[in-house]
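Researcher: Quick sanity check before group meeting.
Model: Go ahead. Protein one:
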Amino acid sequence: MIRLFFVDDHPLILEGLKSLLSLEDNLEIIGESRTGASCLHVLAHHAVDVVLLDTALPDNNGANLCATIKQLYPHIKILALSYSKNDLNISPMLAHGAAGCLIKNADKEELLAAIETVYAGHTFLSSALETVSVKNDKPQPHITKREKEVLSLIANGHTNHEIAEKLFISTDTVDSHRRNLLGKLKARNTAMLIKCAFTNKILTEFSH
């Protein structure tokens, strides 16, 4: 059972999320908040697995609240919710620990996939983000062919063990490639690593 909590200041969005997810057997809706302050109050008193968090709230921006939640409750997975693929808050949220981002026009199938993916410890980027183009004048870091293969598999949600099996290498080697990629792209976590890979156009396609 995945315990969900919604944070959004738009009542229609909250009602829509509850309507779409309330009958799912493997999901339990713990509650909802419209502000960052009320969100933190609820999380202090209730066990939650996944928070669906709006990128912008009246009393807090998504990145700051995301950082606070991850600091207080590292086990909670955060899925950013945005109206637009051009939302400037998406990258900061991924950089502050969000496990993925979903555009609010997503259908139920994609919403469920996003929740289950981040709950399982993987990264999820909405299909609408595939075409995001971010201007970047910095020199592109040198990524080897093998590192790009590993990066592509990471982006598609594979574990180190699964990547090792697919590439016929050891899990220690996969872990080494992952550390090298984090260093080269100056990323603090997997979500940020994937975002940086798209920003630098190292990855140009994304499939689930």
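Researcher: Fine. The other one?
Model: Protein two, sequence then structure:
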Amino acid sequence: MNAPTDGSFSQPDREILLAQIRESYGRVVYTHKTHEKQADLYFQKHRCEQRFFVGLTALSSGTFLVALLGLVVDEVWASLVTSFVALLISGVNLSVKTFQYGEETQKHRDAAAQVWNLRESYLSLITDLRAGTKTLDEARARRDQLQQQALEVYSAAPRTTSDAYGLAQKALKDNEELTFSESELDLLLPVKLRNQQDGKNNDSK
């Protein structure tokens, strides 16, 4: 049997193209979730860093005041403690300038936002393929366009870690963060747009 020449789908062609696009969609979903988890990890480190810095600053001020008021008998120990706390503060400052967890957090959030748009575009293409609203040539052109967009997004995105990927895998496979039951979706929609109406409406004929 000859393939259609008008750009419409034959069933084997449609299934092959759909399988490829579904595979690409899956990779994009994991990339998006991994960047989200990486941003969360860096944000946690950023908050811990800031809290530690504030705590050391308060401790340094308290130690200085104690020494100033003469409440510490041994001035040598007071001087050593103050110097040690100051050294720790310098170390935290160097860490902030070196690792820049706050900036890294924002970079991964920005990357996740871009990948989210790519993810939703792939989902829309899969929907169009399922509905048969695109010809074979149109679907292929859209696929190639999305692949180019993915290349640009991935090239500019910061690197992620294995820890972030592990958290993303757990979120998607075990916690099902990207999936909803019919009842959950209905609760998010206005009443008139829900698949399942109230029992009274269903029973009334």
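Researcher: One line on it for the slide.
Model: Helices lie at 11-68, 75-99, 101-131, 136-156, 162-174, 182-188, 199-203.
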